[in-house]
Amino acid sequence: xxxxxxxxRNARKFPNKIALMDGAVSLSYREVDDTVNxxxxxxxxxxxxxxxxxxxxxxxxxEFVYAYFAVLRLGAIIVPINARLTAQEVQYIMDHSEAKAxxxxxxxxxxxxxxxHKVDVIWVKTGEAIEGWRSLSQLxxxxxxxxxxxxxxxxxxxxxxYTSGTTGKPKGVLFTARNIFAVATMMALETxxxxx
Length: 196
Prior knowledge:
By secondary structure, the chain is α/β, with parallel strands linked by helices. It contains six helices and nine strands, in the order H-E-E-H-E-H-E-H-E-E-E-H-E-E-H. The strands form three sheets. A five-stranded parallel beta sheet has the order 4-3-5-6-7, sandwiched between helices. The protein has a two-stranded antiparallel ribbon with strand order 1-2.
């Protein structure tokens, strides 16, 4: 079992149950899974594949969820970073992680403007496409909704989290799917989350 397959399984078992709420928007498991498949197929057409690193530079919004699961669905590795980092800090993480793509939010993408023509990666942002940036919504709209089976197992690497770097440069900590399951389970228990 892997994290991406959990979403796909819930889309099959509970297609109409609410999976995600973002403000006034409620989305079912089927809707989220469909969006994830569409985005994953478009990212694959851009060359994102198993083992590639993709930086997520976003606040806590639904597009983060789409991007997170779409990257994992391809067997690529998520590098989620703090949405308050500066361009210099982001570039360090991109270089250190050997990122192949960056997915940013429209609210903060301009922080990375100085890097777009300087760093050779795939640049994607929410909102409209502009010079150097592809549009996340256009990638979703043009993607194929056919199911994509995630190739990852619990032992496979899925995520690189960067430390705060208080005593030097941030260090990338590599997590497997099992590590992420363990943290998610602990959080669910501690916060008393359940199906209601």
